[in-house]
Structures are given as structure tokens and as C-alpha cells.
Amino acid sequence: MPNVPRPTRDRARSLRRAMSLPEVLLWQHLRRSPAGLSFRRQHPLGPYVLDFHCSSRGLAVEVDGAFHNFAGQAERDRARDAWLAGQGVTVMRVAAADVLADVVAVVAAVVAMAGGLPVRG
């Protein structure tokens, strides 16, 4: 990964070992390639680590816990999403509580979002 700084790659490895419960539940479904989509977990891209990334559709799925509701974090999330958009990545944010409540519905929403994006070559 030539454009990924080493600290970001190291952080991604660390995050793979310490995923939150909602991330683990969602990963159990996404790793089975729903609708033929391939996802990577805790994928480094530039200076960021994406919770889940489907490179064939340019989709990042971010699981947001309560921490993301704080004003300072919301601003950082907007800046991050803007940078990712500049890289051709669409960000889909899902609440951790939604994953815990109905992971199947969240997976269906992810598949629908990915299905609406063009295939990248």
C-alpha cells in the first residue's frame, strides 16, 4: 500500500485485533460476501482506517458509536468523509446501536447502497 503511512497500517492491524462488538457482528455477515461483494475490515487508506471497505464499489462502511455524536468528532468525521470522497470513496455511516438491534437489516442496507454504486475497475 504505497500511499498508506506505516503508522496507519500498524493502527489498522491493531484495530483488527480489537474490534467492537457491533463491528464483529457486522463483519460476520460482510465476510461472507453478501451479493458477491468483497469487503475488507479495518482497511487503511491514506491517513485513515476504514471500518469496512468494498473496493470494487468504492464503499466505506463506518460503524459509529456514541463517541461520534460529540461536536468535535462530528467535524473530524465530516473532514474525513470529504477527503475520502476526493479519493472516490462513498462513506456509509451506520449507528452501532442499529447493528446491535438488527444486523441483518444493516447488511441489507449496505448491499443496497453498494448495488447503487458503479463497479470500479
TrEMBL record:
Ranges in coiled-coil conformation: none
All residue ranges annotated as the DUF559 domain in the record: 9-111
Gene3D superfamilies documented for this protein: VSR Endonuclease
Highest taxon of the lineage: Bacteria
CDD domains for the chain: Endonuclease_DUF559 (cd01038)
Protein name: DUF559 domain-containing protein
UniProt organism field: Sandarakinorhabdus cyanobacteriorum
